[in-house]
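Propose amino acids for all 335 sites.
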């Protein structure tokens, strides 16, 4: 046979041989499982280092309490809350828990948002006017940074869990991401040396304000000098169905040797209640007068305020028009 005639046959055999001996294609790899994310309470995402104050609110519970809705309705009208929900995709009336935390160069806001993460990310990105940066840190963790107006803002979205926005320095938002990803070993806020001295029951209230010590500068003379040696300050507020607001204040510290500590705290409260602001907020007309005692943590004060008076005072202080404020003052002058 002509050698050239054998070439097609040899080529076919060669192709068949290669096909027979070639290894089978490997099965497609299954995607690697997602690294687990931290799923603790919102306070687990706030660092103790650098914290100046922390406020935690169970917003949905408060919104569903009729006495609260009635008292705070003028301050937070439905149209204002609707506008906020339209701008951010977060309806505060349906948010289980939210917090705000103050640092030297930033304020951090964190909220439980469930499945709203992608919608929040879209609206946040649309508000950025310059310096837009985006990073995907995990299949469920996104970070956006940029300028809103002239102010730096950073969003960390942990999809299915929370959204956090730092206004100012982006560090607190980056810390939220670090805690979510399990990359930080530093203690969160409530486990820090200061706030861990407060009783855990404070955190069970629907509204809590916490401030870690040591206190300095303008705080030093607070509570007639009691804040100078305080480890932490905690205040909880719980509304009742009758329009009362039960308040518990804990000043943590060793006051065993403090001279007249209870009397000094009582005098501080009496001075605040008698001030123009105290009168506006109804602090001078409590439903149950303040009781002060020494406890294991330090000093404890409890009282019950009138929620309606408090809400009306807050509305006049921060939300009313000047003419409303003047008319209220005139009415008080005739009482």
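Proposal:
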């Amino acid at each position: 046979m002509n050698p050239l005639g054998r070439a097609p046959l040899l080529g076919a055999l060669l192709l068949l041989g290669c096909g027979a001996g070639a290894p089978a294609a490997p099965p497609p790899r299954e995607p690697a499982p997602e690294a687990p994310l931290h799923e603790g309470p919102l306070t687990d995402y706030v660092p103790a280092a650098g914290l100046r104050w922390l406020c935690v609110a169970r917003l949905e519970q408060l919104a569903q309490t009729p006495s609260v809705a009635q008292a705070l309705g003028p301050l937070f009208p439905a149209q204002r809350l609707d506008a906020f929900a339209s701008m951010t995709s977060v309806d505060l009336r349906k948010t289980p828990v939210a917090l705000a935390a103050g640092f030297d160069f930033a304020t951090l806001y964190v909220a439980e948002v469930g499945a709203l993460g992608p919608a929040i990310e879209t609206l946040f990105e649309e508000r950025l006017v310059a310096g837009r940066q985006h990073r995907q840190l995990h299949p469920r963790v996104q970070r956006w940074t940029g300028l809103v107006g002239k102010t730096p803002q950073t969003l960390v979205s942990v999809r299915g869990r929370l959204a956090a926005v730092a206004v100012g320095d982006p560090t607190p938002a980056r810390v939220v991401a670090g805690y979510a990803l399990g990359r930080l070993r530093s203690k969160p806020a409530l486990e820090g040396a200061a706030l861990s001295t407060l009783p855990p029951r404070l955190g069970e209230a629907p509204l809590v304000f916490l401030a870690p010590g040591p206190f300095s500068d303008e705080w030093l003379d607070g509570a007639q000098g009691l804040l100078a040696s305080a480890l932490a300050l905690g205040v909880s507020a719980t509304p009742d169905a009758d329009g009362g607001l039960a308040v518990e204040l804990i000043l943590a510290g060793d006051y065993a040797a403090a001279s007249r500590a209870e009397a000094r705290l009582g005098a501080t409260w009496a001075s605040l209640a008698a001030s123009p602001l105290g009168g506006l907020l109804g602090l001078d007309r409590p439903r149950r007068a303040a009781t002060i005692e020494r406890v294991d943590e330090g000093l404890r004060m409890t009282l019950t305020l009138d929620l309606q008076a408090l809400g009306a005072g807050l509305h006049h202080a921060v939300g009313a028009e000047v003419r409303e404020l003047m008319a209220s003052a005139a009415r008080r002058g005739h009482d």
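The chain is about 35% helix and 25% strand. The domain at 47-187 is CATH 3.40.1000 (Protein Transport Mog1p; Chain A).
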